[in-house]
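BUG: 3D viewer hangs when loading the predicted structure for this chain

Environment: internal workstation, default settings.
Expected: structure renders.
Actual: progress bar stalls at 90%.

Input used:
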Amino acid sequence: QVRLEESGGGSVQAGGSLRLSCTAPGFTSNNCGMRWYRQAAGKQREWVSSISIDGRTSYGDSVKGRFTISKDKAKDTVYLQMNSLKPEDTAMYSCGASCRDLFYWGQGTQVTVSS
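C-alpha cells produced before the viewer hung:
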C-alpha cells in the first residue's frame, strides 16, 4: 500500500515561513498529479494547491501569492513553500497523489502559526 509522508511542519510566528515536503518511499509519484490539502480543527478539509504531471500549478484563493508548490522529479518530492504565514493557516497539512484511478494520502504534518 502506498503511503505518502509529509514533513516540515512546525510552529512559527505570523509572517514567518515554512516549507513542507511530501515523499512516497518506494513509490514514484512522477506520473501523478500532486495536491496539498489542509484541515483546521473543527473545519472541513480545504484544498490548498496542486501541481499536475506536466508541472502546471494552481492555488486556493486563501493562499495565492503566498504559497508555492513545486516538484523535484529527481528526488520524487513535492514541496509547499509557505510564506507570509497567518494564524488562519494553522491546520494539519496533508499531501495527496492522484494516480490515474487511484488516490493516495499521507498522514499529515501540523502547522501552527501564532500571532
